[in-house]
Known about the structure:
The protein is mainly α. 53% of the residues lie in helices and 2% in strands. It has helices spanning 20-23, 27-42, 51-70, 75-83, 86-96, 102-111, 119-122, 135-144, 168-181, 195-211, 225-234; strands spanning 116-117, 150-151.
Amino acid sequence: MACNEIDNNPPDTNIAVDFERFVRLPTDQKTTLNDWFEHAWKMREADPMEHYRAWMLSWDLLGYVAEIITGSADMETWYPILLHHTSLRDRFEGVMSQKKSLMRMYVKRFSLSWPIFDVREIEQIQPGYTFSPIRSKRVLEYLAKGASTFAPLCWQDHLMDSEFLPDWQHTLSVWRAVRMNLFRAEGWQHSETEVRIISNAFLSLIYFFKEGKIFFENPSLKPDIFDRTQVLSSL
């Protein structure tokens, strides 16, 4: 579901975008990226506090993929391009259409924390005020206090839509918001950088890499006991 609020940052049409550049990577380069992926992949079973590091590794890996297909290492350049990138979007939404997908499960869990606010704005709202520990109530309190910088910007438009399923553009915009907040807060006890948000951001992205087949298959990455347990618990 395309939303104008997400699409308000048009990509640079002068940049030649080619997903095949990633597909055709020399074996040594692709193996290095796949090893990076596998390192992050194994961290999904770690204590959720370890997911801060895993999230940074996964986001950086997405940035390398973006750099390869756009030719730019600048996130402000590649981010709007990725929002509209059909190869990644189609892979993401193809996985989301599979009801037993673990990526779909983690994306849905991730979306329960939406919207993600800019911590700089939140820290300026009535310092010392004690907000509710319940996420849904805290979000409403932030909005009531005047918070207006959050992702996805169209979040309120979907509140009453029981059929809404996060798509590529919505999810990518929130992944970016989580990444931008990571070192803006004073420590990682802030509501917008707390472990549940970071863990679900990491798990939704790492399972996109896996189930979207962004990286070539490795026998060690076949579904294991952890995967099967998660699938059963999500049914």
